[in-house]
Amino acid sequence: MSVEENKRVVKNTIFLYIRTFVSMLISLYTSRKILEVLGVSDFGILNVVGGVISMLTFLNGSMSVATQRFLTVELGRKDKGNYNRIFNMAVLIHLGLAALVLIAAETVGLWFVNTYLNIPAGRMFAANWVYQASVLSTILGILQTPYHASIVSHEHMHIYAYVGLGESFGKLFLVLLLVVYPYDRLIFWGFILFVFQFLIAMIYRVYCIRQFPECKLHLNWDCSIFSSMLRFTGWNMFGTIAWLLKDQGVNILMNMFGGPVANAARGVSVQISGAVQGLTSGFQSAVNPQLTKRYVVNDSEATCRLLCESSKISYFLLFIVALPVMMEADFILKLWLVEVPPMASLFTRIILIESLFSTLGAPMVTSLMATGNIKWYQIVVGSSLLFIIPIAYILLKVGFPIETALIVSALFILLGDGLRVVFCKKQLDLSLRLFGIKVILPVISVTILSVILPLFIHYHLSEGWGRLILSTVVSCLVVSALIYTIGLNAIERNFIMTGFISRVKRIFYHIH
Predict the structure, then answer these.
(1) Rounded distance, CA 93 to CA 148, Å?
(2) Is position 481 within any domain?
(3) Residue 98 sits in the same domain as residue 156
(4) Are 195 and 237 in the same domain?
(5) Model pLDDT, residue 12
(6) Which of 175, 180, 295, 329 could cross-link 370 (Cys pair, CB 3.0–4.6 Å)?
(7) Do 215 and 238 have their domain in common?
(8) Residue in 72, 378, 444, 438 with CA at minimum distance from that of residue 430
(9) How far apart are CA 477 and CA 282, in angstroms?
(10) Enclosing domain of residue 344
């Protein structure tokens, strides 16, 4: 990347990191407060009803990836005319998706909610109102997809930071409003949340229309663009469904062999992993458009170089946060929860390891998506995920412990990374030797050396605030030092030092 592109990625990463950190802190508070105000029964209704409508939107997930990819490609080609045509087709396609989801939600979904969900008889009326609010929120989210994709493709991440911070504080205000609301709080929460999301969506939409002239609506149907996007979405959906089956299959296996307690432990672990990953996802969001744009201009060398750099740095950013959490998982869970499900700390460690493997492969996924040639990639990698459930089932059936299902899942994610490297070699001309030297070797070296001192502290000090603080500080310092000395090359170290020195000079300039 050029110096200007590096600066843009760093700036966007900082914007998104601040947004995510503040949002995470507020979310941890609001999620507990909502549970407290609604009560266990109503909170359960809120989640299970929302889960029904979310199952109907898996197609939109695949279509969102396609929209993001096609818009970023045209921006990389600097073809604003074609960008506008793709944007308008994306709007039309998502209108169609919204209509399909609405029909399914008001027929099959509504029937399922009223027939099969275990909802107390006295709360069925409220559950139906919340369901309708969830349907409206889902439709709104689908219709917003082209606008969100436009902001990302243009790399205007600062708007996400500003609006995201406002959204977090707004939700905090709504929760405080929920506390004093005197009537049915479940119905109130469902609809006030939809109204709030509608306002946020309008802010993004107005921003796109004003900032990006190529986002003007004409709504002209283009069969060739529709065919290309649909074909891409179809193959991407294969991988999406495989991932969905993997996640839900593991959950079902844990219920079969460990009961609801195992599901509760996994649910807590997934929440912690999501929070940790959220703190580091800003970098990937910032660098993804650059990966696509490098490929579009046929700069294979720059694409592979950025792929290696972003894979390594994504892993390091997650590892800095994940290591102290893995070390002190027991104490952190006791601080966060009133009653900690058995095995939650062990599950947290395994799922964080899986997250590290997944993060390492994320830039490869983006780069392969940029090629548009994803048929065999999705077939091979998606099919590999389908082996997780039968293998885990057999091992659990013969007597292996319940965490085996999570371990098998993590190992297959690592296998998926290996398969992605092979596809990157074939489609992007990625050098396996280059990837080994620039990514694998630094990652393994930093990981092994980083755990020695924190492990020593963990086993020689008793559990408590003192060990948590010392372990976290030492882990962050050790990992940061090792990343800088052996994890980064000379060019990367020079870039960091140059940026740091320029920041310090700017601060002193303002002081004087």
Answers:
(1) 15
(2) no
(3) yes
(4) no
(5) 64
(6) 295
(7) no
(8) 438
(9) 21
(10) 229-432
Phi first, then psi: what are they for 118, rounded to 5°? Answer: -85, 85
| Mean pLDDT on 10-17 | 66
Q: Are the C-beta atoms of 67 and 145 separated by less than 8 Å?
A: yes
**Helix, coil or strand: residue 79:** coil
Considering the domain architecture, whether residues 356 and 373 belong to the same structural domain is answered as yes
Burial class (CB in 10 A: 0-12, 13-18, 19+), 116: exposed
Specify if 457 maps to a domain: no
In a domain, 370, yes or no: yes
Query: For the ranges 160-174, 190-204, 371-385, which has the lowest average pLDDT?
Result: 160-174
Which of 432, 457, 488 is the C-terminal boundary of a domain?
Answer: 432
One domain, residues 392 and 310:
yes
**Domains in the chain, number:** 2
* Burial environment of residue 420 by CB neighbours within 10 A (0 to 12, 13 to 18, 19 or more): buried
Q: Are residues 336 and 252 in the same domain?
A: yes
**pLDDT (0 to 100) of residue 253:** 85
- Distance between CA atoms of residues 247 and 267, nearest Å: 11
Please give the DSSP secondary-structure letter assigned to residue 340: P
Work out the average pLDDT over 233-248. Answer: 81
Confidence at residue 165, expressed as pLDDT on a 0 to 100 scale = 81
13 and 159 share one domain: yes
Say which residue the tokens 């986002």 belong to. Answer: 215
The answer to whether 157 and 14 are in contact (CB under 8 A) is: no
Query: What does the DSSP assignment read for 264-331?
Result: HHHHHHHHHHHHHHHHHHHHHHHHHHHHHHHHHTT-HHHHHHHHHHHHHHHHHHHHHHHHHHHHTHHH
Structure tokens, 248: 């839900």
* Distance in angstroms (rounded) separating the CA atoms of residues 466 and 49: 42
Q: Which residues lie closer than 8 Å to 48 by C-beta, 6 or more apart?
A: 117, 119
pTM of the shown model: 0.78
User: Which of 432, 448, 464 delimits the end of a domain?
Assistant: 432
Q: Are 327 and 245 in a shared domain?
A: yes
Q: Does residue 472 fall inside a structural domain?
A: no
The answer to whether 148 and 84 are in contact (CB under 8 A) is no
Query: pLDDT > 90: what percent of the chain?
Result: 22
Integer angstrom CA distances of residue 35 from 42, 336, 486: 8, 14, 46
